Known about the structure:
Elements: E1 2-5, E2 9-11, H1 15-22, H2 37-40, E3 43-45, E4 49-54, E5 59-69, E6 72-78, E7 84-94, E8 97-106, H3 113-134
Antiparallel strand pairs: 1-8, 2-8, 3-4, 4-5, 5-6, 6-7, 7-8
Amino acid sequence: MTQYDSKTVEINKSRVEIFSNLENMKALEEFKDKIPQEYREKINFGEDFISFELPSFSTNVVLRLVAKNQDSLKFNIEDLPIPAKFQINLSEKSAETTSLSTSISADIPFFMKPMISGKIQPALDKLAETFSKVL
């Protein structure tokens, strides 16, 4: 599997507060109005999943929560033609500041890496930035 890591963003909230916002995916629906307009209508929240359209791959995907602790949330990515996993990492910098990063591990066939890799990194960075604004 190839791993891609986002840039790290800082959020002016405690790790405990951010984790409690993330651990129930359905609760994230209250932040939907902070998501960029072009994605807002194509995203759905459940207790243990988020589903959304992935326009660069012309498909809908599901991030299903499979493991969580105070430092990370791990998801299986469903409905992609390749096996993939997604992770949100939290690191407390101070009582009121938390670093957040995201990563994807995917089993990308060698011949597809040049076409896909250039799309994954910017998407991860944008996702981390979105979390910093939404949470």
